User: What shape does this take?
Amino acid sequence: MHENTPELRIEVASQIIAALNLDIGPEEIEPEAPLYGEGLGLDSIDILEVALVISKRYGFQLRSDSADNVRIFRSLNSLTQHIAEQRTK
Assistant: This one.
């Protein structure tokens, strides 16, 4: 079983950083800070890039038209939790 662990959170943060060529370390992304807008400051194109990388890396589809995206991409913690839930299915 895969859980929402600090290791998974760092892995997901690293995926975000690599996808967007950010010049920060994974530990610099606050777990509860918003990913979109304030916080990490991602825009809708950034979120699409992250969704593509996460989909490829973890083997499940993140749909751009999903009503759950606001919840999923709310923060690093919420994205990590969603990945952990999908990996246990």
